[in-house]
Amino acid sequence: MGPDTVRGMRFAVMIEGQEDVTWEDWVAVARACERLGFEALFRSDHYASVDGDGSRGSLDAWGTVCGLAAVTSTLRLGTLVSPAPFRHPSVLARLAVTADHISGGRVELGIGTGWMEREHRAHGFPYPPMGTRMDRLAEQLEIVRGSFANGPFSFAGEHWSVEALDALPKPVQRPLPLVMGGAAKARGAALAARFAHEYNVVHVPPADAAAACGRLHAACEAAGRDPATLRFSLMHGLLIGADEAELRERSERLAAWQGAGPDEVAAWRRDWVAGTPEEIVARLREYEAAGVERVMLQHLLHRDVAALELLAAEVLPAFAAAA
Q: For the segment 290-303, what is each residue's pLDDT rounded down to a tens digit?
């Protein structure tokens, strides 16, 4: 089923692949997601631990997506999001199309500006000021979209240029969905209205999600686009327990993994999609009312399949009628 065939709250699992997720871990979580009925599995595109743990490794995001495309059959796959400085837009487009062909049309390409300076510096990627990164993102979107379309096409930008490019083969999906991530401020919202199929905001409360959704709608209207054609999604931290004891045990494991203190544990319960299944349903209803159509739940305890099983059994059915 393609991404534009249904509306309403839908569920994806989001894994922070830079936190020592092995290939065996990836296969296990992908097979669990497919078995449990999640629509999609997304992964971050980082080469260094966001927690600052230098001992943790990261497999390449698009190498992972291509590999998982070959060992799954129904699960949608994508990046959330690929930083524009990491790859030439022609390379990024080719990787996405390759994964799309391997999967038979189940891939989504998430694109953003990039934000972790030390990671860029360490790996030799440019990290200019935000305005320049936005310029690079805009050019990348132009070239990626042109690569997916029937060619040839040319584009001459300040950072990248292509000449008479007809990138073959074309994606299985027509169009292959582009997901932009960010804060939906003025320029990002305008770019989304021009290029994106979906816009994703990260770790924001329901009121901020509603405001971002409003800005995206306004940008679409200014561009002469039907706002209903731009999907709106949220990526947020997940912490679930069948009861208080299980929630406490999972919180303690996550705190140990992240080196977190008691204040952060309390903040997770307050600010994340966290709690018992009943609490999580209530929290997600707030986001649904704010306009969120899909939620990417950030599962930081990536080897804990039982948490996904609980989510699938006790939370997803509450939203089945809407999907």
A: 999 999 999 999 99
